[in-house]
Amino acid sequence: MRKKIVAGNWKMNNDLAETKSLINGIQSEIENLELNNTRVIVSPSYVNLSLALELTSSNKIEVASQNMHQAKSGAFTGEVSADMLKSLGIKSVIIGHSERRQYFNETDALLAEKMDAIIANNLEAIFCFGELLEDRKSDNHFNVVESQLKNALFHLKAEDFSSIVLAYEPVWAIGTGETASPEQAQEMHAFIRKTIAEKYNQEVADSISILYGGSVKPANAVEIFSKEDVDGGLIGGASLKPADFAAIIKAI
Hints:
Blueprint: E1 4-9, H1 16-30, E2 38-43, H2 49-55, E3 61-65, H3 82-88, E4 92-95, H4 98-103, H5 108-120, E5 124-129, H6 133-137, H7 141-153, E6 164-168, H8 182-199, H9 202-207, E7 210-212, H10 218-225, E8 232-235, H11 242-251
């Protein structure tokens, strides 16, 4: 049975004190919640990873990094390697986020290298992908998503997918005024699972968790999470408010 996951991507937000307050707030909100098959993950900035790990060492919350460089070490100012993250105790890494693709020009080819490094270091990847507004309006969204999956992931072995969580981001529905319906989310998630089954097998497709990253909020979480192929969410802004994040966790 594949895991349900609610992951909070905090992006470039929260100083040390704010990180502590947010984690404590989330813990207070969910301390009496029976999570069953659900994983809760938070992803602070690099500088607050150690604090987050310290604060979550004995509870229900996991900590992930927002990114990772593909090289083991070297002259890459400002970057962080797998060994550095592992030395802290980090086990999961978000890669391929739409903001990394848009603002830092991360390509599918680069992400394929990062995936290789993640797998080689026995880390878990939360791999993000999704189409832009123009792709959706031109009815090219399925082709774009299929291409992103094939270019970055389909050189991997079937067994490698046990270390991968997928996070579908309809970029066109994030901060654009456009709205993605739960039915549209399910349609794409089903397509993603079908694409993986065609490349590998149905067992791999059925076992991988696929998260939805299109502006999930307390008001729409229940309906989105009720869809058959939606296994949780990668949450942005709502994960910065303990009550909202907890409400989304409860919705799953």
